[in-house]
Amino acid sequence: KAGVTQTPRYLIKTRGQQVTLSCSPISGHRSVSWYQQTPGQGLQFLFEYFSETQRNKGNFPGRFSGRQFSNSRSEMNVSTLELGDSALYLCASSLGEAKNIQYFGAGTRLSVL
Amino acid sequence: GENVEQHPSTLSVQEGDSAVIKCTYSDSASNYFPWYKQELGKGPQLIIDIRSNVGEKKDQRIAVTLNKTAKHFSLHITETQPEDSAVYFCAAPDTGNQFYFGTGTSLTVIP
Fold it and tell me: Which of A1, A75, B19, B103 could serve as A42's disulfide partner, Cβ 3.0–4.6 Å?
């Protein structure tokens, strides 16, 4: 079974631009969660999508948004990039029920210059 | 929401020694506690988890213990090897299945 696939692996953007990251979950998984990982803050929860609906949301500004398609693939968008958005963005997929194991992708490393 | 605290933030041990990482959580309704290992350039990988109906779980050199009364759980690695060097994260979910992660422990095993 293929694992969680995130593309691209690396991105370099400048302030003010926008970016879209993609996540393909494990086949059969309906839940995709997004996290921001930075050295000082650890893994911070952005949002979770389940069956094309946002089910949970973390404490991030509205510049961070996402969506999920009918095949469970998910995209995350960040508009008006700031220097502080530089981070590793991880997505995790699961079956979507309570206590289900989350499986992580390798992440997208975003650098904002 | 849940609040997860993890200690220590860094840990160095000699090869063959044991390593212990501790986490506390705040939501007494939490009932599932996974541990993840993250190697350089990779995403976190689940190494062991424990559900609230048991107090201890072992998998070869790795064990996790859970004390629901005190609201803490610990990762124990015995006979450490250089390949155990990585960052380890604990996590706990809230009732909405949103996971909260500890801040991570960077483990270095010195050959």
Answer: B103
